[in-house]
Amino acid sequence: MSVPATTVTPPLVDELDIVIPTIRNLDFLEQWRSFFQPYHLIIVQDGDPTKTIRVPEGFDYELYNRNDINRILGPKASCISFKDSACRCFGFLVSKKKYIFTIDDDCFVAKDPSGQEINALAQHIHNLLTPATPFFFNTLYDPYREGADFVRGYPFSLREGVTTAISHGLWLNIPDYDAPTQLVKPLERNSRYVDAVMTIPKGTLFPMCGMNLGFHRELIGPALYFGLMGDGQPIGRYDDMWAGWCAKVICDHLGLGVKTGLPYIWHSKASNPFVNLKKEYKGIYWQEEIIPFFQSVVLPKDCTTPQKCYVELSKMVKEKLGPIDPYFEKLSVEMVTWIDAWNELNPATDGTTVAPVKTTEAAPKKK
Amino acid sequence: MSNRCPPSLLSLAIDATLYNFHNISSDLSFLPEHILIDLFLRTLKAGKLTPRILKLFLATGKEEILSMIQALNIQLVLTPVLPTTSVKDNEVDIVIGAFRSDLTSFMEEWRPIFSRFHIIVVKDPDLKELKIPEGFDVRVYTESDIVKVVGSSKASLFSGYSSRYFGYLVSNRKYIISIDDDCSPAKTQNGELVDIVAQHLNNLKTPATPFFFNTLYDPYQKGSDFVRGYPFSLRSGVPCALSCGLWLNLADYDAPTQALKPDMRNTRYIDAVMTVPLKSMMPMSGVNIAFDRELVGPAMIPALKLAKEGKVRWETMEDVWCGLVVKTVCDHLKLGVKSGTPYVWRNEKGSAIDSLKKEWEGVKLMEDVLPFFETLRLSPLAVTAEECVVEIAAAVKERLGSAHTSTAETMVEWVKLWKAVRS
């Protein structure tokens, strides 16, 4: 067998963590083995911590259950959701890498129209390592893709693009519909392979789905808090939506790009639409007011880091969304807790620890 | 043929009948049988035998005709194959700005898709002659027609790539579809011809969703829908006023890009159409567009002409400017713009390097123009496309400097012409 002269290293193998929230098992990793095995995994085990999650052999991983989360974060663990895949953001918190790819445990390898298996991770990496173009819409979509370019009329000064902070992938088979749509169209499957990646323009919000997502942790990680969902909370299945709205507003402010489109994964499990309806119910009403709120957010110029942006956002959430429901006041508090936790676990590179934002509470214990 | 006989009066009469068949509904049985047969054969040859016309011939009851129909096994189609949307033929005008003198191969290629519809061909004044094959319901406008309608001083507005705008001006249909005369029908991955009329109309007749991005693209397409997290109050969408199609083979790149990558061809058929979000500007390519004339006709303006505009797309920016204006108008009036399918196949024409050699103002143009459009705000008083265009023109005059004064003036002229022609 011929062996390459130099070892072929998968891209970003030492700079990317794969974060997977799970409550059942990780058998799905078998199908992803050839694409994921070189990378480090962070498994966030939701639900009962006494249950043992079996990880297939040969993967390099660290696993955190609820006990670990409580131990590591102490009182700050209040910001991490329980009994909801929102707990995945704990994985973002504890990662030490530059990039994150997160995927759900019911997502499998999809095939493109030619029948070839899609390496979703490689595509996300390509999306993240090539610029985004949020300031002018390119009608041929991502101009950095092979075989594409900027079209006639695209200003030359904008052709360098900006750094891509988020890469949002899509799903074949079970589409990410909300409960009402699922109830009306239980048999609809997404079979259209749209062979495109594109930048979501500046000033445009979108519904970010967390089941196939890549991002630049250093640039936007702090904005990807997945909110308070699940057990003890009045709302579920809006974790990724919340993170997406916050992150997009902050990306727009900081001049970062968000891409959507390829890669596709194969989403195999349709969740129970009645259960979903119960979880989403409040969200469906609240989003009517949440969206205009995010559309009108203007962050001050001195918010130059994602943390500063996020803290500022939390104040606005308390002020503008608090009146809708006490949940938002609670959320705004935990948004700050999240940033405190982030800063504690990710001290600034120049060696100075960032002071906690809340001055009213006792200083956090050193880890 | 060395010895060409001039056409006989009979032959001319039959041609005229053929040309006007869509207006004829009276009984044909008064015609002598040999003339009827001639007419029938000529109709077949021109590809104009529609069910309605077949019924006219059948109604004559003439034996020769009936036996011919039987012998050729022509049958009335009782269960017609319907296109993707119920397209009423009289809703659509197809407008072509003719740059080449012989449109035969172009029209023949598009015959399966265009033959149902009324076609407006506007002849570029620089063209000496124009040849169009038979069997189409086509109206040709020449320079003298243009002068008759708008006067000789304004006729220059409608030359070169801007000729087609005259077609927009004189059309009285709701939807206009316009493509360059160097395009052929594209084929889908299954090998079927892309019916750009059906697809553009599908885009225009289904709502657009500019206020929030749907990650599964156009939710009104079959097999698609709004995703989780999409606000319900935004799901009824807004009317779509403009549908921008794409191109396979020669994509609409600018001259520097194509010159740098001379072999690059667009082979990727992306099966999606999507709404261009609110406030997001995009470069409209006139190569393949469709629009709702009733909603945004006045905003489809032939205002910007580069000093050295040529006969290839690399040497014009009129459509890009027009697109920025239309998008601004649509954003203000809460109308939608879609981009994506349908595709056309764009044929090779011209040389990118030759175009590059000309002093290319277009490159610099966008740098000044885009910031202007991004910060442009129209007043609440502008509630029609005409009013919006007038406000934009005033802003152009005020903020874009002397280089664009004539553009601003042309925009105002266009609105005046538009109103004058309609009255």
Automatic annotation (TrEMBL), chain A:
It is found in: Golgi apparatus. It is an enzyme of class 5 (isomerase). GO terms for biological process: cell wall organization; plant-type cell wall organization or biogenesis; UDP-L-arabinose metabolic process. GO terms for molecular function: UDP-arabinopyranose mutase activity. This is UDP-arabinopyranose mutase. Glycans are attached at residue 152. Signal peptide: none annotated. It comes from Deinandra increscens subsp. villosa. Probable UDP-L-arabinose mutase involved in the biosynthesis of cell wall non-cellulosic polysaccharides.
From TrEMBL, chain B:
InterPro entries: RGP_fam (IPR037595). GO terms for biological process: cell wall organization; UDP-L-arabinose metabolic process. It is found in: Golgi apparatus. Transmembrane segments: none annotated. It holds the Pfam family RGP. Signal peptide: none annotated. GO terms for molecular function: UDP-arabinopyranose mutase activity. Keywords: Cell wall biogenesis/degradation, Golgi apparatus. The keyword Cell wall biogenesis/degradation applies. One of its GO terms (cellular component) is plasmodesma. Belongs to the RGP family. This is UDP-arabinopyranose mutase 5. It comes from Deinandra increscens subsp. villosa.
